[in-house]
Design brief:
2 strands, 14 helices, mainly alpha, single chain, about 0% strand, about 325 residues
């Protein structure tokens, strides 16, 4: 069941919904109290603001470009990728028609990188790589002699590495990820969440190549950093990936140990009927199955399937027709 965006209480069978359909409330009182906070994430309010800026400042104004990028960010967060893509592209067209200056170029490089990640998820891989490289080149130009210590450059390198791996260019992808790792270590030292994120990316690439034993070692290193630098929810997602790798490499008891910890975190942060909780149970069932413990594997898998069905049912009731509206 959905919970109120303001008070976290269950919304019941007749929730109050914002017209953007991404926010639900238990009452009009909570909706009104949350209106100011929600406005920056409300596609309806952001579209209205964009229209007002286009009318007052001009369709090709920098203010309109900024509003398009802000709207693109919200669509991106909502996984409305086609709409996010359109917003970023329109914003970039405005920036590219203006004189260069550091502030505008910084925003343009941000939008280019965000566009590249959207294109990656849309599986437009060649275009994604092209835009990511353009964003990195712009960031390196802005950073000048300090490009080797710039976190934005490191982020672009990491994204570029993921894209190369997605294209099957694993060696090049690992090289870019390792370059990103070195930049982050230079900036933050090894015990930082950005370092852990790059290590996780490297582990994922190795796993996709079938180098699962190497991937496990790197995942374990990343998880050690995450335990000290990140919250429970992020650690839980990493525990799930590690548990799945333990199953695939035959370390079934280690998988069960990791799942036990992960289930506690998942239920505490996401609830008993969340997809991540179900995935932990599915992984647990797989470990039991490989260990020959068929009865408990079956009952655990049935519980996981019940969770997935409830997630699917909740998503169906809460979708409200949220399409890929254009800006």
């Amino acid at each position: 069941m959905d919970t109120c965006c303001r008070c976290d209480r269950p919304v019941g069978t007749e929730p109050v919904k914002c017209s953007c359909k991404s926010a639900v409330y238990c009452s009009t009182r909570c909706q009104n109290a949350h209106k100011k906070s929600h406005s920056s994430q409300c596609t309806v309010d952001l579209k209205k603001k964009l229209d007002e800026l286009r009318a007052s400042e001009g369709k090709e104004s920098i203010a309109a470009a900024e509003a398009l990028i802000a709207l693109g960010d919200v669509y991106d967060d909502l996984d409305k990728l086609t709409s996010a893509k359109a917003c970023y592209q329109d914003g970039l067209l405005i920036y590219h028609g203006k004189e260069h200056n550091p502030s505008r170029d910084e925003r343009a490089s941000y939008a280019l990188h965000k566009l590249s990640t959207v294109l990656l998820r849309l599986l437009e891989l060649d275009k994604a790589l092209e835009h990511c490289r353009a964003a990195r080149a712009m960031r390196q130009h802005l950073a000048g002699g300090r490009a080797g210590e710039d976190p934005h450059v490191a982020l672009c390198l990491c994204t570029e590495g993921e894209m190369l791996a997605a294209l099957g260019r694993y060696k090049e992808g690992i090289a870019k990820l390792e370059e990103s790792f070195q930049v982050y270590v230079k900036i933050h030292g090894e015990m930082h969440e950005s370092v852990a994120s790059v290590l996780t990316c490297i582990a994922n690439v190795l796993a996709s190549q079938g180098k699962k034993t190497q991937a496990v070692k790197i995942f374990e290193k990343a998880l050690k950093i995450q335990r000290k630098t990140m919250g429970d929810a992020r650690v839980g997602v990493s525990l799930l990936a590690l548990a799945q790798l333990y199953v695939e490499t035959g370390s079934h008891q280690q998988a069960l140990d990791v799942v036990a910890e992960g289930l506690i975190i998942a239920k505490r942060n996401f609830g008993s009927h969340h997809q991540i909780t179900g995935k932990f149970m599915q992984t647990q069932a797989s470990a039991y199955l490989h260990m020959g413990r068929l009865a408990i594997a079956r009952s655990t898998l049935e519980t996981a399937l019940a969770v997935f069905r409830q997630c699917q049912s909740s998503a169906g009731h809460g979708s409200g027709g949220g399409g890929q509206g254009a800006a």
